[in-house]
Design brief:
8 strands; globular; single chain; alpha/beta; 3-stranded mixed beta sheet; about 160 residues
Length: about 160
């Protein structure tokens, strides 16, 4: 939400959200913004979450073509996704359980859909993601708040 506040204050049209352990594919942000400018129905566009690698030699060197879009009815692509100004003005991240509590992408998806926004994902790009599913690893290592965060999101 702090990033969203800054983006709105700076009159940004889009914001690219990327997990800290992801390396951005060159030209992907520009290509995503260009796609969204020409698709007024797309307010959230993200890389498919299975399009990752931990091997730098297998990551895409660029994304310069308009990606193939698919409506996403599962999750908000917070790991590598772009948001429109209209979406950021309307939907905020739930901070009742703290920032980045492990299910924020699920909760944001629910809030986004409730507000009438349809997230989209695209295929055809492989991004470098060094520590995939870090939140799930915390659960496997005995994070006692995991079940509380999960139940909170489900409610």
């Amino acid at each position: 939400n702090q990033i969203i506040d800054k983006a709105l204050a700076w009159n940004a049209d889009f914001v690219l959200f990327v997990d800290g352990d992801i390396t951005v594919v060159p030209w992907s942000a520009i290509t995503m913004a260009h796609t969204m400018q020409h698709r007024p129905d797309v307010h959230c566009l993200g890389a498919h979450w299975e399009g990752w690698t931990s091997d730098p030699s297998k990551a895409s060197t660029a994304l310069v073509n308009t990606p193939y879009l698919v409506k996403c009815d599962m999750i908000a692509p917070t790991q590598y996704g772009m948001w429109s100004r209209r979406l950021m003005e309307t939907v905020r991240f739930d901070e009742n359980f703290g920032a980045g509590y492990g299910f924020e992408d699920d909760a944001y998806f629910i809030d986004m859909k409730t507000a009438g926004f349809q997230p989209h994902i695209f295929f055809g790009m492989t991004y470098l993601h060094r520590h995939i599913h870090h939140g799930h690893l915390k659960h496997e290592n005995g994070d006692v708040l995991y079940e509380q965060r999960r139940e909170y999101t489900l409610k």
